[in-house]
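Backbone-to-sequence.
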């Protein structure tokens, strides 16, 4: 026998049709010829996360490498915290069902109702089923190929998700795992080591008995003699047998062929206990179900569903996300519910949304259960069913009839198809379903990793997992038109970087608030260094990236780490940091002379007060809601959001006029219609849009810089949410939907834009702006509009259709200006009582967002440095500590300028609130973005309730944070250099 690894790989020219990741971008949104980029409300349809190259972004590093056209890197943190624990959890669940099948016990969900999944199934024919429970030699070796892909949840988390069994089938997945790219075989030793360890663990065979697997009685029988042989690596073909090959000396037969089609001698020897079949024949039943094969003619990926049915729903941050699947029945005269097996029915669904008051490191399924019937979850627009934050989820679901005819493919459905499916469902019957959160998308393709897990019963009778099975491969299909026969193929690359490996060791400190906090802190530092080009990080910036108790420094934190004897963790952190020698300090301020004044604080207070508690009352896009309870309220008669928008335009135009910048700076609106998948006729604003009686609009101020082809944006949202305490009957509410005053959420930010305009206009007059500044008032951030303005703005950026309407017939074309960064402000004026003087600098995805965060960090450092000087002035030095207004009318007295600590909370930081704002839309689109937000306490009063008023505002804190935001945007617009700094 040829020694392992000595067989040469076939030349690449033998695979002329091989295509790598470059082919995935052929249908990239925004690309010439494919400009369409629709952005649905995430509450109506949670879309696929986009990877590789975002619609408004550049090629992401290090996901793809030109030197590896078929590679897909898997970060260490994904493998350790999601994939490994998740695969173990789900494989044990699947094994429990397979053991029951093989032992002749109840088949649970495998057969589903009336055992129809096993009727006519060639992998479980009567001759095998009749012997279930009597095959004493069966060790239940299973090669389970799972179909996985990252999806996004409503907390902005990117979670590896189980879609079910691989639609490519177990044989293909298994053998592809012994290649590294088309035609590039892994060394034969990889297979021999895997098989030798398996046979040793399962059957007690000592590896010494297998110096040669041929002599040890191992052979391979492909499912199909011609195509099956083509799957095998060249070094495996020496083990091949044919249907008429003698089996007398064969003890272990690796075959994925249906049991019904095995040679008669193989069946006889297996049933007699003289032959071990690898894998267990019953583990292949998922790929032989006539029911799902029928559904697969209409739904190409239906082959994933049977295995998914054996795994319970899971949504926690550790492990694999598992969407719910099952059967439900709606009353119908021809359906007798007693004829349907109760254990396969699951009529209820635990709902969640991004406004749930829980942390991103928590599992919403166990903490905040809100249970509804699935039919209501999918289609109901009843106000009581939706509450304040829910919408129908049918777009994230697939439905089929009891005869396995496709009823709805939600992710690809039209409005008309949604309505038709609803009508059929409500007419009654038995229906199968699975919730679908679309797989990660690269360009115009969705990507799945087909990863096998090898399980078996050990000699002690325990379910065990092989520690080192093949890794399978990845496939990419055209979105909405998957052809599983001709995918683009990629191969996983498990990253094994020493620094990350050290960081992910389980180090604990007494300050941990959530699981893996210390390890994730270290990963944040490593990721930041990589995103910033590999350069050492300023120590102050590194400290801001860490989730540590306030006041705890880097050196002190390091002392709490139980460092290995070689000091690798301490050395790792220190290698990331820039040296302090030669520290030039932050550059001079662009805007603090205008914002670090009592006049600025007073103007800021007065603007918040006017916007929140002045004449504008009904400021949700859905106003006024046409139900009796809401209409009975004194003020719920007119939508004031439109008059508020007029006021903002007027204020900005006055600033432009006063700065003598007319004809150079402009303020206008970006109009659009509010469109949805479902009808919401009781939402007054939505209805008026459909009837063309009003439209929605973002409001934009364009302030010119020298380079008119680039702009940096400072944004807010000028709508408000409905008040939970006045709505929620469990809290004494009436069920009425009344708009909050919105002092903090988000007129603390709107007032910032009003005060920023004159400052930026003056910088423009002085020629100090290298690029444009855009002040953007976004509409419809709150529910039920759900980031409506941000979605429209991003869609227009990608499609190059951005026009500023100045009124009349005057429009300004802005599509040729590229937005290089966005600072979104959302809730910036409430200083948390139990953790004061902290705020969020929360960047979106990618290096460009992190660089925006670094600018914001340096603006924060400069504020803190200068505030110590300003506080030496007599009026500040003698001022009492800051306090809120006792009645919301009196202006709080002057106080010392606060020194604020901006925590840089990256996209994966469990404490980042980016997901709960418009910032998530910009990040998902690929627009560099940073969120400015207070140290958000999800359980405090004053958020989405009647107490979001002036009594809730901390003037000194909010004005300081507003000043830092204004300075940050100016720094980017003026092209200020980023200077290393280790102090602050």
């Amino acid at each position: 026998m040829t020694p392992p690894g000595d067989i040469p790989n076939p030349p690449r020219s033998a695979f002329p049709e091989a295509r790598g990741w470059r082919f995935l971008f052929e249908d990239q949104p925004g690309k010439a010829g494919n400009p369409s980029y629709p952005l649905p409300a995430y509450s109506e349809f949670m879309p696929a996360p986009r990877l590789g190259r975002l619609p408004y972004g550049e090629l992401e590093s290090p996901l793809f490498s030109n030197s590896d056209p078929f590679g897909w890197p898997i970060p260490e943190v994904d493998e350790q915290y999601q994939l490994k624990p998740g695969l173990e959890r789900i494989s044990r669940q699947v094994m429990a069902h397979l053991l029951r099948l093989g032992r002749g016990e109840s088949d649970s969900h495998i057969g589903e109702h009336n055992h129809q999944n096993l009727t006519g199934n060639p992998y479980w024919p009567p001759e095998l089923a009749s012997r279930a429970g009597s095959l004493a030699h069966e060790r239940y070796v299973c090669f389970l190929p799972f179909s996985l892909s990252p999806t996004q949840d409503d907390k902005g988390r990117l979670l590896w998700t189980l879609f079910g069994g691989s639609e490519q089938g177990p044989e293909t997945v298994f053998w592809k795992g012994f290649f590294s790219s088309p035609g590039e075989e892994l060394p034969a030793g990889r297979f021999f080591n895997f098989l030798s360890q398996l046979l040793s663990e399962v059957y007690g065979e000592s590896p010494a008995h297998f110096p040669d697997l041929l002599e040890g009685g191992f052979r391979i029988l492909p499912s199909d003699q011609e195509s099956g042989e083509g799957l095998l690596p060249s070094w495996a073909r020496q083990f091949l047998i044919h249907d008429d090959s003698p089996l007398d000396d064969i003890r272990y037969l690796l075959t994925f062929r249906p049991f019904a089609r095995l040679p008669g001698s193989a069946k006889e020897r297996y049933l007699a206990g003289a032959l071990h079949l690898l894998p267990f024949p019953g583990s292949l039943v998922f790929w032989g179900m006539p029911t799902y094969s029928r559904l697969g003619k209409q739904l190409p990926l239906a082959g994933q569903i049977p295995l998914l049915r054996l795994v319970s729903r899971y949504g926690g941050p550790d492990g694999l996300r598992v969407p719910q699947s099952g059967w439900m029945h709606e009353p119908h005269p021809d359906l007798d519910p007693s004829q349907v097996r109760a254990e396969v029915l699951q009529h209820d669904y635990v709902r969640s949304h991004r406004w749930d008051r829980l942390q991103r490191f928590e599992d919403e399924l166990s903490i905040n259960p809100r249970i509804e019937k699935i039919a209501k979850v999918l289609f109901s627009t009843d106000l009581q069913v939706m509450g304040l934050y829910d919408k129908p989820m049918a777009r994230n679901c697939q439905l089929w009839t009891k005869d396995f005819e496709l009823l709805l493919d939600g992710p690809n459905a039209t409005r008309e198809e949604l309505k038709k499916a609803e009508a059929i469902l409500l007419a009654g019957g038995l229906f199968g379903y699975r919730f679908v959160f679309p797989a990660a998308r690269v360009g115009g393709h969705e990507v799945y990793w087909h990863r096998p897990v090898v399980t078996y019963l050990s000699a002690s009778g325990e379910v065990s997992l092989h520690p080192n099975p093949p890794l399978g491969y990845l496939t990419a299909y055209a979105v909405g038109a998957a052809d599983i026969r001709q995918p683009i193929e990629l191969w996983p690359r498990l990253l094994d970087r020493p620094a990350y490996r050290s960081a992910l060791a389980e180090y604990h400190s007494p300050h941990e608030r959530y699981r893996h906090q210390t390890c994730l802190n270290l990963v944040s530092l490593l990721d930041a260094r990589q995103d910033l080009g590999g350069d050492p990080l300023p120590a102050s910036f590194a400290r801001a990236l860490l989730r540590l108790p306030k006041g705890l420094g880097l050196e002190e934190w390091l002392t709490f780490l139980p460092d290995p004897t070689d000091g690798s963790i301490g050395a790792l952190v220190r290698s990331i940091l820039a040296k302090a020698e030669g520290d030039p300090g932050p550059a001079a301020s662009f805007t603090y002379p205008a914002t670090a004044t009592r006049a600025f604080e007073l103007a800021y207070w007065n603007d918040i007060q006017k916007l929140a508690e002045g004449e504008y009352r009904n400021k949700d896009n859905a106003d006024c809601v046409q139900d009796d309870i809401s209409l009975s309220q004194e003020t719920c008669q007119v939508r004031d959001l439109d008059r508020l928008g007029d006021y903002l335009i007027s204020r900005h135009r006055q600033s432009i006029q006063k700065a003598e910048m007319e004809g150079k700076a402009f303020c206008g609106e970006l109009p659009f219609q509010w469109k949805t998948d479902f009808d919401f006729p009781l939402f007054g604003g939505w209805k008026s849009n459909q009837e063309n009686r009003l439209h929605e609009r973002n409001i934009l101020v364009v302030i010119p810089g020298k380079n008119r082809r680039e702009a940096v944006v400072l944004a807010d949202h000028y709508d408000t949410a409905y008040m939970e305490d006045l709505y929620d009957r469990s809290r004494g509410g009436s069920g009425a939907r009344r708009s909050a005053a919105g002092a903090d959420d988000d007129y603390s930010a709107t007032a910032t834009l009003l005060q920023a305009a004159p400052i930026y206009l003056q910088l423009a007059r002085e020629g100090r702006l290298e690029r444009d500044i855009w002040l953007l008032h976004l509409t419809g951030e709150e529910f039920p509009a759900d980031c409506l303005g941000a979605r429209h703005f991003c869609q227009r950026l990608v499609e190059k259709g951005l026009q500023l309407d100045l009124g009349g017939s005057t429009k300004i074309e802005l599509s040729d200006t590229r937005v290089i960064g966005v600072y979104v402000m959302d809730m910036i004026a409430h200083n948390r009582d139990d953790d004061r003087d902290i705020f969020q600098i929360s960047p979106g995805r990618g290096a460009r967002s992190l660089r925006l965060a670094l600018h914001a960090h340096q603006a924060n450092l400069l504020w803190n440095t200068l505030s110590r000087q300003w506080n030496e002035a007599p009026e500040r030095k003698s001022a009492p500590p800051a306090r809120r207004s006792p009645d919301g009318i009196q202006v709080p007295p002057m106080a010392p300028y606060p020194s604020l600590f901006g925590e840089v909370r990256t996209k994966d930081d469990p404490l980042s609130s980016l997901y709960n704002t418009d910032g998530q839309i910009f990040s998902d689109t690929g627009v560099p973005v940073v969120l400015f937000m207070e140290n958000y306490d999800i359980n405090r009063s004053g958020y989405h309730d009647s107490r979001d008023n002036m009594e809730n505002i901390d003037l000194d804190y909010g004005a300081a944070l507003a000043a830092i935001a204004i300075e940050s945007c100016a720094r980017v617009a003026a092209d200020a250099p980023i200077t290393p700094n280790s102090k602050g």
